[in-house]
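Submission sheet (multi-component)
Chains listed below:
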Amino acid sequence: MNIVELHQVKKDFGTLSVIKSLDLTLEQGQILGFFGHNGAGKTTTMKMILGLHQATSGQVKVFNHDPCSSQFNAYRYQLGFLPENVSFYPQLTGLEVLQFFAKLKQVPKQHCVELIEQVGLTHACQRRVKNYSKGMKQRLGLAQALLTEPSLLLLDEPTVGLDPIATHELYQILKTLKNKGCSVILCSHILAGVEKIIDKAAILAQGELQAYGSINELRKQQHLPTQIKFKGYFNIEQLAQKLEVNIQTHQTGEFSFETEPSLKLQHLKILQSQLGLTDFDTEPPSLDALYKKFMEPKETENAHLEQQTTKYQTTDDSVDLPQSSTMKGAKP
Amino acid sequence: MNSILAVVEKEFKDGLRNRWLIAITMIFCLMASGISWFGSANVGTVGFSSIANTIMSLSSLNVFLLPLIALLLSYNAIVGEDEDGTLLLLLTYPLTKGQLLLGKLLGHSLILAVATLVGFGSAALMIALFADNVDLMQLLSAFGLFILSANFLGTSFVCMAYVISSWVSEKSKAAGIALILWFFFVLIYDMSLLGILVATKGQVHAQVFPYLLLLNPTDIFRLINLLSFEGTGSGLLGMASQLHFSLYGLFFSLTLWILLPLLLAYYRFSKRPI
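Outcome: structure written.
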């Protein structure tokens, strides 16, 4: 069952086209990682899913309804949202803030105490929010997003300000929610660790989808090398010649090399046949590497455009400068 | 309805926590007590003079203070939430823009109501307890009408602040415009009317001018309190008091000063990009 469906969605702000024909689906119990540079259109897409922005054209459906319609209000109880740089009422305590949001969703007060405990804020729940650190505000934001055990959870940069333990706890919470059938859209710049919990990734650049699918599908599309790490006692030069790769030696006593997907099995067989081998591990291309690879064409295009503009401006200047004294009123 | 009440409770708690409520109440209490006892100091007497004099003096001073307090209390109602990012979050909840605005209005009005009731009410209580020869019924009705009209006046400025708040994109701009609005209604408007009347020596439909007072909520408030004592006032208020506006009519005008800005604020808020 599709929880979110975006079909040929476009969003313009005046003459600025922020989203150019976007197609996305999110099924029940799936976690979608939504990635892109600043200004790629991630937040605008989220706002369209939340019904805060109407698409210029195309169709947005959430729980099979138009999120901008008045009927959608009934489905808002099933929505959880954590905005980027979340901010709350500084004069109220953490518990009061959560109780206010709970009241809006008709959640019993007792549940707020449980949620405060779940996000590790019990010790600070009677403190005013103005005295909270960024991480504490983020935890409080997460608690409000989880108020109703949502069917759809949208998280915009949820790990910003969180320490590694809190980040790990967040991912654990997301896994639990996923197992209960909650669908999650996770928008993040911090890619490390995200790949372990997401089912699908969508990479957005300048309002266009650059990649969309499971991590394995994206890996297959890009043919990025797998890293093989191993330990043991070898003549490294001989082994490198045999494998026809560059082997790197690490300070930890570990060795590693990169191999193409088509050669991976062959290289592993050679490695396993080595008598001195004590341990080995394979590391598929990371989400970070995939992201960079998918963004490459767009970045090259941008660099090319920039180069063209600079070239044009330089040429323009060199032509205009001698004439500028005679061209009165011409724009500089 | 639950959502509106949640917003009302939050606004009231916020007002209580950031000392707004206490500060306003204290100001009203000191102002009312001071005027009750020292209002006749300029004619050489100290002590309570009369209910009429007290209410007249109070309404003259309140006309300056209450609109300013109401504007300062609510100028950032929408733009503040927007700047802080909470508006974005609130609108993802089962809460419409209308409910949010109404909740804020009721919350801010409640703060003003409590402040005026306690602040001015305590002054009335002191008069009842310590002043000689006071008709308690007259005191109660005079202060009751004064507090009620003060609340109408305050609420109308709260609604005007919402118009500003839903229109502009920065809190600082909203604060600036709110001060200009206060300056206009409290000082500029009456002076301009009077100036035109004097400059034209009453040639330009002088009888229309008193009705123009209805275009200023502070003047309506003064008229209400003037008429309840069959006072005459001076200048334009004096002319207006001779026209025998009814109390209901004046309250109706003040209600329009609440409803029209509120509708405009809602319209602007519904068009506001998030």
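Remark: The first helix of chain B runs from residue 2 to 17.
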